[in-house]
Amino acid sequence: MVSAGQHHFLEQMRVRTADGTRARQMLVTLMADYWLAEGALAPSGVLVDLMCDFGVSESGSRTLLSRLTKEGRLVVVREGRRTFYCLSEQARVRLASGLRRIADFGHVRREGPDQWTCVGFSVPEQQRALRQQLRKGLSWLGFAPLYDGLWITPRPVARDAAALITKLGIDSASLFEGKIDGIGLGHGNPTDAWDLTVIEGLYREFLDGAEPLLGGLDEVSLDPASALVLRTELVNVWRSFPRIDPDLPLDLLPEDWPRSDAQGVFVRLYDSLAPAAMRRVRGVLDRNAPDYGQHVSAHIIGTRTSTWLD
Q1: Which terminus of the chain is more solvent-facing, meaning fewer CB atoms within 10 Å of its CB: N or C?
Q2: Would you place residue 123 in the very low, low, confident or very high pLDDT band (cuts 50, 70, 90)?
Q3: Do 88 and 75 contact (CB within 8 A), yes or no?
Q4: Does this model's pTM top 0.90?
């Protein structure tokens, strides 16, 4: 059986790579993993009970649900005395996009640095908060700073970057998409924008901690609650990797770049844990709201296929 101690490394990695508190990340991920379908309703009592598996108290869970609702990430639905939560449309679309990115990540064997997206900007010190918003948004899209005011990514995301710049009301930014030589790099390497040593170290750390867990998945005694926690912790760590390493071209990376190996281990773990995790979710549903079982399903990545486990 997979023990809590065996996957403690995920908690350590999550602290270094993910944003937000653990409780917040776990609740949002539960909604994304099991109630992502449009109109899917999660009974409040079910969410509270499941969050107990992560060591979050009932009062803490209800406070977090209220906060996420005020932020527009969740929507409250009431039927008589019963309270349900569903993802807001904006949150649902964003989380669905994130799941697609996770499913695609590591499959594209991108080689050749011909096409890059670049953003040049200058935001004055007086608008520091705006500058931080721009940097955070660009980072989420896979950009990294080559120079202070020049961010680049190998992804074709000019449209998304333009939308971000417009949304923030920044008029001192310019976009470029094309050959990297067009921005005056000369003979430099565009991957200088990323600390490859740190990224490779994170991949190796993930592999060292995750690979041994695969052996424990063969046992029928895998505890459903432990499977749910492990699966949720796992995806919270892994979803940071597409931001840290935006599928950088392999021919610009060190030999034996571990992205593909790490991605394979993640998919095997994530998908293999789904049946046991679903048993936990359905068990809590059966006790609290058995008539809402049709609203829950588990996302399966497989080989980039968007499938669901009912």
Answers
A1: C
A2: confident
A3: yes
A4: no
